């Protein structure tokens, strides 16, 4: 490993620890990659400002200043993703509403009640503690199960009426799978460092120590959400495997064994 002075495109300079071999210029390429984007503070500030702008028409969050700043960005991303998924599912409902109006209304109510239950939360702590729960995915899973139950009811009714053929399946949009990149050792080390730096930045000394003990004991729930937040800001998607990779790197870092 080696330390590099990085002059970011935002104009700020940071000292970064870059891990891995440099035999074939790997560290230099990683340093160039870091220099080609804003520093972590600027990226975080930009995300926070964007979240504040979109939060103007939403209920204000309650909690400490740090909690609110963190929760704003979490809520912003969660609700953006949830809104996109809601639009997709409502379009799906509209496609089969002419054939199954009652069932379509049931699904519309399911979507609306899910959104109404999740979006009004105003405690910053709620958004922080539940940051590893993807609301868009949770809505999709609930919708899929509801469609499956409706399909079974329709087929059971047809069978009771003596019809042999089952009803035409209700279409459900397939979950979107983003291309997942493979994470190299240097990237895993860098992201592990960013994760632990954020722990130290957001938590007080006792909470940092508690997080270290939880990690050593294999209780990684809180850190998973934090790592997912950091991975979401990267130029490529690393998926759940990336979260596991960063966690494993954190477990083996010397700083956590002290």
- In terms of DSSP E residues, the strand content is under 5%
How many helical stretches? 10
The separation of the N and C termini measures 19 Å
How would you classify the helix and strand content by structural class? mainly alpha
Largest sheet: 2 strands, antiparallel
Task: Provide the helix percentage.
Answer: 55-70%
Query: What's the number of extended β-strand segments?
Result: 2
Secondary-structure element order, N to C: EEHHHHHHHHHH
Overall radius of gyration: 23 Å
Major sheet: arrangement of strands: 1-2
Mean pLDDT, rounded to whole units? 80
Ranges where pLDDT stays below 50 over 5 or more residues in a row are: none
Shape: elongated
| Tally of individual domains | 2
Structure description:
- With 258 residues, the protein is mainly alpha-helical.
- 63% of the residues lie in helices and 5% in strands.
- It has 2 domains: 59-160, no CATH class; 177-258.
- It has 10 helices and 2 strands; from the N terminus they run E-E-H-H-H-H-H-H-H-H-H-H.
- Strands 1-2 form a two-stranded antiparallel sheet.
- Strand 1 and strand 2 (13-18) form a beta hairpin.
- Helix 3 (65-96) packs antiparallel against helix 4, helix 3 (65-96) packs parallel to helix 6 (135-160) and helix 7 (185-202) packs across helix 9 (221-231).
